[in-house]
Amino acid sequence: MLNKKPPLDVIRTWSDIHYASPEAGRIVEDWLYILNEGSEMDIFYSVPSSSSLLLTITREDEYPTWFYHFDHQPHLHIIHGNGVIHQKILQSGRYRIGVINFDSRVEVQLNITARALIYNTSEARDMCMVAQGQCSLPVLFGAENYAVLTTHLKQGISDGESYVNLSYQPRLSAYFGGIVLVIIIMYAAICLFNTSIRIICGLVDRWRLRFICHLIVFMISVLFAPICMGPYRVGAGSSSLIQVAIPYFVESIDAFKFPDKKVEPILYMLNKKPPLDVIRTWSDIHYASPEAGRIVEDWLYILNEGSEMDIFYSVPSSSSLLLTITREDEYPTWFYRFDHQPHLHIIHGNGVIHQKILQSGRYRIGVINFDSRVEVQLNITARALIYNTSEARDMCMVAQGQCSLPVLFGAENYAVLTTHLKQGISDGESYVNLSYQPRLSAYFGGIVLVIIIMYAAICLFNTSIRIICGLVDRWRFVFKRSLLP
């Protein structure tokens, strides 16, 4: 226990040796290091020269954002042969080091040397050994108090991880003083409440009519404003389903395409949910030459569940790249899903990767390079499932400008926004702004109903206030006696 914040200037050094033999498509059990800002690590690795592995260094709370941080702090490393990786810790936290294998079983040896900065406790006023069981340290009243929890054993999950339960013991004198203060505040609040009720009793009748007038103006202003659904992002070849919510108050759906060149969306309206059973196939060829430590500009594919992709790649046989297939909203969780849906692939030479889409969404395909500049060619063939619009009752070409489709009153209404061009970011991405136009008759009927309900509620509120005004004086002394001993 210290009276001031201790400096982070003590260096502690230790080493760990780990042996691992991860199976193909699996991440080996990773190793934990709890390090402060300014610490450093040297990771010496030994892998058979004919194989390549992926070594990861990640902070536990960093999964949503680390994917594009190659410029500032390299987290992924393709390792083969013998070598060393130097890692500087830029932010305090819990760091995990793991090894991922995408080929046949490979053995790897890691010799990890950590130079950790720890807090200087030379000026501590008290200390206790938690290892001996329960211990307690006093906290000074009204002063700064800092506690440092440290261990003198070498770090790493290879030596186990433990938990220490910390709890505060209350200062009884402060608690009793707080109870007295709360009683005084509650007494003052009851007196203030009594005065406020009397003032409200005089104002209710005066403001009732004004409140109803403001309510009518507000409802009319809402009535004549279209309900905006926001912009929808569409790629060439995409097919999105939109269910019309509350058709009683919606007259039509308006679609307006933002200025763009290559994507031409079409809006369909159906009476029932269309099946997802139409297959559309197209191919894209991409050439990339990513610099070392960079992810090449990735390519977008908007695909529905059940679609498939074949990615044919060609890389010089002496180099290795990392190919990623990720859904845009999946970054926080995709890292450990190698059993169900492989997202990372080490590619070299010529080959093909087959990817089945298990969940509809926006998928990005990218190539990451950790070595010198390498050229790669990708030939991507997509077999996409799109919604069947053969039974559509209406359609309009959004590419021609603004268009509108009517919504049936009280029935199910489904809209499908689709395009007929080949997909991929190479052919562009566009935005379509969708909005609901209100059904005026339903809105006017709703306004009348709301006014009637609000008038009845105000009359009930007025009556309740008058009853409360009569009871406050009678029960005021009862409230006082219930609070005071």
TrEMBL record:
GO biological process: protein ubiquitination
GO MF, one example: ubiquitin protein ligase activity
InterPro entries: APD1-4_M, APD1-4_N
Residues in E3 ubiquitin-protein ligase APD1-4 middle domain copies: 85-188, 353-456
Keyword Heme: no
Keyword Zinc: yes
Domain E3 ubiquitin-protein ligase APD1-4 N-terminal: 2-59, 268-327
Keyword tags: Membrane, Metal-binding, Transmembrane, Transmembrane helix, Zinc, Zinc-finger
Residues that span the membrane, as ranges: 174-197, 209-232, 440-461
Alphabetized Pfam families for the sequence: APD1-4_M (PF16041), APD1-4_N (PF16040)
Protein name as it appears in the record: Uncharacterized protein
